[in-house]
Amino acid sequence: MAKQFDVIVIGAGPGGYIAAIRAAQLGLAVACVDAWTSPAGKPAPGGTCTNVGCIPSKALLQSSEHYEQVNHHFADHGITAKGVSLDLAKLIGRKDTVVKQNNDGILFLFKKNKVSFFHGTGSLAAKTDFGWSVKVSGKTDEDLEGRHVIVATGSSARALPGVPFDEELVLSNDGALRIPSVPKKLGIIGAGVIGLEMGSVWRRLGAEVTILEAMPDFLGAVDRDVAKEAQKALVKQGLDIQTGVRIGEVKTSAKGVNVQYTDAAGAEQKLSVNQLIVSIGRVPNTQGLGADVVGLKLDERGFVVVDEDCRSNLTNVWAVGDVVRGPMLAHKAEEEGVAVAERIAGQHGHVNFDTIPWVIYTSPEVAWVGKTEQALKAEGRDYKAGSFPFMANGRARALGDTTGFVKILADAKTDEVLGVHIVGPMASELIAEAVTIMEFRGAAEDIARICHAHPTLSEAVKEAALAVDKRTLNL
């Protein structure tokens, strides 16, 4: 007889495992099914984010930043380091340890919250009198039944047409995290989050990095002032960033990868590299889900079709995260997971897409929430803008990291904060204040009147808010 649950979650990435835990907290009987497996053959819940995305990339970014600092910036602090060498295997090993700690942490949370975990591939099998039948295919096959099913199967890297990932020469985000030796020349197609972060990691470790981007503008979705500042800083560090290119033939050989492309001026170019990272977006993981078996509606791109509350076309079948519309962000998936669990329990879960922050963990970091200045201009909305450079911030000077600024956009009449854009040190942490203010529909004046500790980077946010009213105190 099938094991029965109030809720079955297919996928244990940020959306799935959080949905399972929240549903269990609300008193529901919950099962979570996930197929990720560690190199040791053990369950590895956490999805792309934990295993080959957010967590391991941040571990490598931190390690490579230390290497950059000791080789190029310690002298500024009166510290002389000699005989510095790179143990890449140990660096990668530390990343793997961090990943395992997160995997184990999720398994502990399942146990703590009495979530039944099943290691294997979950698929929708049939509608039953109880609810929905879910098949688990793994070392041990299982038959489950759930009154509700939450699909949280995530996404996978999109490959170039005709150029599959082999994870040795042509790399996805997975292969980019475990290159066995620092390549002399590394090519990257796509100047998005993954491309820039991985480019930064390997450039710091000694690779010559060239990034090819099809869009004419660098970071086209980012506020123009911020994008320009970030590009200037990254190019100064040594990244060769080319925009407006058209990729042609890509060939692999024993020597590496050759990329034919047309540059922004229309000239034919050739790039020869040891490895090529392809980061041109992601596709939803819906193959093998059983959508065709039960009639779950997918759109033309393979995403599960849902309404604003994450309900699919099937009664009591929900979907969250990368597998549905909206930004492919771990924290967006988490918020949707919580909201769906609460809706199933009869509460009123809510996700505000207008206050979801975005972050690029390069150096300088880039973070933003809300509208860009170009978007406000396109809408014809009257707004005020204020900015403050980290060059004038005491804590940034003490850190020796003064690149960038904070920019705040507010409604010209009401002063409501419409967007906050940061490029500079710890932007990923500073953006949280902006999200909070915007969630409560606060004004720039609210930020300006709040006492910020001194000396802190957060004072730059306050000063930018003061600048909206043209009354900065330290500039």
Automatic annotation (TrEMBL):
It is an enzyme of class 1 (oxidoreductase). Binds 1 FAD per subunit. It catalyses: N(6)-[(R)-dihydrolipoyl]-L-lysyl-[protein] + NAD(+) = N(6)-[(R)-lipoyl]-L-lysyl-[protein] + NADH + H(+). The keyword Mitochondrion does not apply. Its cofactor is FAD. Residues 356-465 form the Pyridine nucleotide-disulphide oxidoreductase dimerisation domain. GO terms for molecular function: dihydrolipoyl dehydrogenase (NADH) activity. Its EC number is 1.8.1.4. InterPro entries: Class-I_Pyr_Nuc-Dis_Oxidored, FAD/NAD-bd_sf, FAD/NAD-binding_dom, FAD/NAD-linked_Rdtase_dimer_sf, Lipoamide_DH, Pyr_nuc-diS_OxRdtase, Pyr_nucl-diS_OxRdtase_dimer. The active site is a redox-active disulfide bond. This is Dihydrolipoyl dehydrogenase. It comes from Castellaniella denitrificans. The lineage of its organism: Bacteria, Pseudomonadati, Pseudomonadota, Betaproteobacteria, Burkholderiales.
